[in-house]
Amino acid sequence: MTASTSAPSAYRAASLPGSPLSEAYTRQPPSALDKLAKALYWPTIAVIALAAMHLVFMLYAAGLTAWALGALLLFGAGFAIYLSRAGLAYRYLFPGVAGMLLFIAFPLLFTTQIGFTNYSSAHLLSQERVREFLLEQHDTVLDQVRDYSVHGDGKEFRLVLRDPAGSAVGSEQFVSPPLALRSGDKPLTVAMQALGPASGTLGPALSLKELVEHRAALAQLRLQLPGQTGESATLRYLGLREFGPVKAHYEEQADGALKRVADGALFRPDPATGYYEGQGAAAGTHLAPGYKVMVGAQNYKRMLFDAEFRGPFLSIFGWTVVFSLLTVVFATAIGMMLAVLLNWEDLKFRTTYRTLLFLPYAVPGFISILVFKGLFNQNFGEINAILDALFGVRPAWFADPTLARTMLLIVNVWLGYPYILILCAGLLKAIPADLYEASALAGAGPLTNFFKITAPLIIKPLSPLLVSAFAFNFNNFVVIALLTDGRPDYLSTKIPAGQTDILVSYTYRIAFRDSGTDFGLAAAISTLIFVLVASMSLLNLRLMRKANQ
């Protein structure tokens, strides 16, 4: 009795704050691992902070100010949450919120922003980069090209220019003062001097491999020949063996225009087109490449008000809705029917049937699509071989728009019904058997049981999943790309469009294939797809909420 009461009293004493027994229970000597972790805690935090600040600085130095600010805010929020007691409640939420911002919100905002620009394969660069590119265009003065060699001079180097090929200059050669050959941000002008006894003894010439190592520094040299003026007096790097004078194609004017040296034509930047447009006699021409500019709602106006664009776009949008809706309807009907049949306990070989019907879901989708593409081949496919043997017809599945769309629905329903089958099979197990027993006593048949008991009880929990299936098929790019590639095409359209294209495959063609990679228009269509899918999903969810009340 004494032993049984003393132990609890000891534990109560240990639980009292400040008691000697409590300190004996709580104070244990830290292990070596604990000491090491404590010693490395703040150094590790400092290394992570330095790495984060270095990344922010690199983004800012590259001219990506907005990216640098976003990274700074993200890193700052992370350190504030994980290093302070006040942020303890947010430590589990921060990774999810940060991931949502990085992988959902940011791509959406970035895509939307591109939709208001003329960003395309012809307008990839900024205006500053395009100007630099045009000013760098030049022709080489071939008869003034000189061979060169680089010689060691202690820790520095000296460059020797030889006679140009076919030049009448004679045997005159030039040598540079000692050079460090370090890469810099700006070109380095070097005054050459005639090679003679006063130049001193030159070291051995660098090998080709050593010249490659110093190529970046050599490319920044501008060699000024003594006693000469004009463009031919300044030599630029032309390769691993040559320096020579160049003639620029364009000259920059004080007002920002570019003057073409050959004919004196002026080109001014036009913010409406994103090109340097010709002035005067050169009007109607522009210099390529173009640069990216904001065009406002121009891409959206093309979708709504351009008749040549609006016709195929509206047709593709309608087919996208029909394709998604019919896929969900047929896949749900087939999957639910098969689930009810497999739920019949007196059915023999149920496990075998369930395994066979599940196979389309187990096989990778792209393999099934490619197999069906071979089966539907007009000349050699098994499906046409059977139809030809039975009815004497060979349908042109890939050439006729109606047959191509029918083929897409068949293949997509084949790929989608196992998902509904699995869902319905699980929902059927949750229906009480008493309902069917009472229905049997009332004399109801299988069809009555299905429409009065089974379908009403599983359609409500199934509805959110059907909405997600509709949204998935609305953006089901893989089946379109692998089976029909959007073909057959509409005839006489401004932008190539296929009669089996859905919006996402049509956007892909605009962005990357047929129409010159118009990223701005593709981004506008992508934004519209997001708005449509989000609106339809919210509408369906609201209707389901009202139906469940």
TrEMBL record:
Domain annotation ABC transmembrane type-1: ranges: 317-540
Subunit description: The complex is composed of two ATP-binding proteins (MalK), two transmembrane proteins (MalG and MalF) and a solute-binding protein (MalE).
Gene label: malF
Topology in the lipid bilayer: Multi-pass membrane protein
Record protein name field: Maltose/maltodextrin transport system permease protein
PANTHER family: MALTOSE/MALTODEXTRIN TRANSPORT SYSTEM PERMEASE PROTEIN MALF, MALTOSE_MALTODEXTRIN TRANSPORT SYSTEM PERMEASE PROTEIN MALF
Keyword tags: Cell inner membrane, Cell membrane, Membrane, Sugar transport, Transmembrane, Transmembrane helix, Transport
Keyword Cytoplasm: no
Transmembrane segments: 39-60, 66-83, 90-110, 316-344, 356-376, 407-428, 462-483, 519-541
Organism whose genome encodes this protein: Roseateles violae
